[in-house]
Amino acid sequence: MLNTIITEEALEDFLAFWQTHFPEQQTLTREAALTMIDDKRRGYANIAASDQEMIAYQDDVSRVYGAYENLAFQLATIVHIIRHVKRLPDASHIVSLGCGPASYELWLATQTGYRFTLVDHSQGMLDRARAIAATLGIADRVTIIQSDARSVPSVPSHSADLVFCLNSMHWSRNWREWITEAARIVKRRAPVLVTCTFFMPRSTITPQDLGEVMSRYFQNEGAGSLVPPVDVGGGVAAVSGRFYAIGRRHDRPQKPQKKKRKR
Questions:
Q1: CA torsion through residues 64, 125, 138, 187, sign
Q2: CA distance 210 to 206
Q3: Of 99, 171, 203, 207, which one is least surrounded by beta carbons within 10 A?
Q4: How far apart (Å, rounded) are the C-alpha atoms in residues 78 and 10?
Q5: Alpha-helical regions (H) of 47-120
Q6: How many Cα neighbours within 13 Å face the side chain of 107?
Q7: Packing angle between helix 207-217 and helix 175-185, nearest 10 degrees?
Q8: Is 90 exposed, middle or buried (0-12, 13-18, 19+ CB in 10 A)?
Q9: What is the C-alpha to C-alpha distance for residues 80 and 153, in angstroms, rounded to an integer?
């Protein structure tokens, strides 16, 4: 089972996992990785990119993921997974929407007997996840589906004991549909953990928007900045736009309230 107590040993184990399976961080700086994939033109600011263009970009990201991804966010995400996700039986089924190369999920698989369904639209990301799972000898507990995360019909309704949407939803204009799909897939009264970046140009997710959509389906069990505010001096604290929210599926979905017409 996943230990709900965060230990130094657990974080050290995840760090060793990260360094072993995403070793490009040891030979590339993040700036060099961003230059290699032409991030300024194709990535963060590319609001008008088609879905196919974004998939091609993320295929390229998959090859330099260890240098591309911020290690602080990786560690913070694992901390929140351990802290906010209740213990689950070892046979539990976890579905991850927008899994990327599945750094969190595959590490969890080494710590537990969980079964995972990994969903992503990037073949490059899934190929990397598949290779790591094979290296770890856990491929028999991992199902891989190439699909847009907003609709995964091959995953049955109410079949997951937990759903992840970790650090990827902000790349989608259709992020609201990711939440709806998570609500369809997860069992009644089971949890979903979402982490995303607010105000990203492609998705423009705001705290208010995320809270409104989450509340339709989930009872709030925790939300806040993924990493603590940083004191930058002069009484000013810098707050990261990377955010987490965890909720438990309502017994019955909540319908969005209709706005009253002004007379």
A1: positive
A2: 6
A3: 207
A4: 9
A5: 51-62, 65-68, 71-84, 103-111
A6: 25
A7: 20
A8: exposed
A9: 29
Tell me the sheet residues that pair with 233.
Answer: 236
- The 10 Å CB-count burial string (b at 16+, else e) for 9-47 is ebeeebeebbeebbeebeebebeebbebbebeebbeebe
Percent of the chain with pLDDT over 90: 75
161 is written with which tokens? 């004991």
Spatial distance between the Cα atoms of 218 and 183, rounded to a whole number of angstroms: 8
CA distances 222 to 26, 108, 192, Å, are 35, 21, 11
Helix pair angle (123-136, 51-62), 10° resolution: 30
Write the DSSP symbol of residue 259.
P
Task: Name the residue ranges covered by the structural domains of the chain.
Answer: 8-249
Structurally, at CATH architecture level, domain 8-249 sits in 3-Layer(aba) Sandwich (3.40)
Single pTM value for the model: 0.92
Average pLDDT over all residues of the chain: 91
Tell me: the pLDDT tens digits for 218-262? 999 999 999 887 776 777 777 788 999 999 998 765 555 554 554
Task: Judge contact between 242 and 167, C-beta under 8 A.
Answer: yes
Residue type, 138: I
Question: Average pLDDT in the 11-25 region?
Answer: 95
The H or E element spanning position 135 is helix 123-136
User: How confident is residue 182, by pLDDT bands cut at 50, 70 and 90?
Assistant: very high
Q: What is the pLDDT of residues 32-75, one digit of tens each?
A: 999 999 999 999 888 889 999 999 999 999 999 999 998 888 99
Tell me how long the chain is: 263
